[in-house]
Amino acid sequence: MPKTTPVHPAGHPAPVLTTPHPEGVSNDEFRAAMSRLAAGVCLITAQEPPLSADGPRGEDVGMTATAFMSVSLDPPLVLVSVREGSRMDDLLAEQPLWAVSLLADSQLQVAGRFSMKGRISDRLLFEGLPCVRGALSGAPLLTGSLATLECRTESRVTAGDHTLVIGRVLGVGLPAPDAPPLTYFRGRYRHLAP
What we know:
Helix content: 10-25%
Order of helices and strands: HEEEEEHEHHEEEEEE
Radius of gyration: 19 Å
Low-confidence stretches: 1-8
Strand order of the largest sheet: 3-2-6-9-10-5-4
Strand content: 35-45%
Largest sheet: 7 strands, antiparallel
Distance between the termini: 47 Å
Shape: globular
Number of helices: 4
């Protein structure tokens, strides 16, 4: 069935959305709808395991995420969605310990730094960032973030082109609990109005 061009109430045509799936929803339609869901922004971090038992520690890896949520209070579980086959997905398949820093609005540059396409090495991305090493996960925790969580993977579920990683929260910190949060809405990072 051919798609018609919807018209907004103001009389202006809406953008034409293409590439339908068999279910009838196109990638563009789905992306447009989901961009209207405001989300918090966090930095997911993990440390590569050493190559040998007595070898040096591995490199720190980080990824900006907006698909992060609380799953359960008892036990304390969280979920993050990572792109299947990404560096973080590959790392979390072998490294069960990881961490989350919930970003404050003053950490906009951190979010942008770790979400760049074709980015430089993670070692350089972490350079100069104010971090402490998590005592339970060994992963970097951003100072100045709203909260930090150290996690251990409980399960991994393949969901389309992403992997849902469910982690048990081993420890939490509240470095800057009263700072305003960084949010993501309609494809852009946003600040909440006071």
